[in-house]
């Protein structure tokens, strides 16, 4: 078996991460379950202490494991909550439709269950739309939104025909179609083992859940709801993005109370996994930017 410096480095990284994560895990409460507005069980975990509370929301066909490299860092100074949205991870799968508004209710249920009062919502990819929904539901508890590689242009002019073209490969063969869909979002510099883990994990998602969520999320761009939702949210928004897609600052600022972005050069869609140390520093910066706006 050929052992390269790259593979040794990756193994060492995951060993340290697992040891650190194990320490944080031992200090955390047991995984818990609450009930969303429609009765669906929602799994969540709580780590650390300190305000504001950071609530991490995963993206499409992912789950709370995608934040594993953030937990040891942020639980030192904050109460950290991770959530599995309905149909993902260890949460229930009883819905006939998986919508952004229902996912927002999942987040609200966990925030209310944990009695979190001063909350920064952090959402990756689809999670950016979900935290916007949750922010609209809980204006008195949410003090800011942080999108992770998301919300590049909330006025993006998507057509129904373009959406159908996007969904067709997923409907025909979800495992193959989802791998092809996600692969284009992963940086060419990503370690091959991490790349394969992401592709294998996301392509193993439940197709009915994934297709329903994708259709509802992208339909918001067709109807204009993706932008309109921010007209009702009077809190600051900051994103930490890779540079795969350009950001339309003017479009976002037409609807958001305030909007700023931090860009990681040459970063792919899964920057919190791919470049965790750099990402954590920039997420700290995003948190500080929001807190300064609230002073």
Automatic annotation (TrEMBL):
Domain AB hydrolase-1: 54-281
Source organism, top-level taxon: Bacteria
Protein name: Alpha/beta hydrolase
Keyword vocabulary terms for this entry: Hydrolase, Signal
Keyword Signal: yes
One Pfam family linked to the record: Abhydrolase_6
A single Gene Ontology CC term: membrane
Signal sequence bounds: 1-28
Gene Ontology terms for molecular function: hydrolase activity
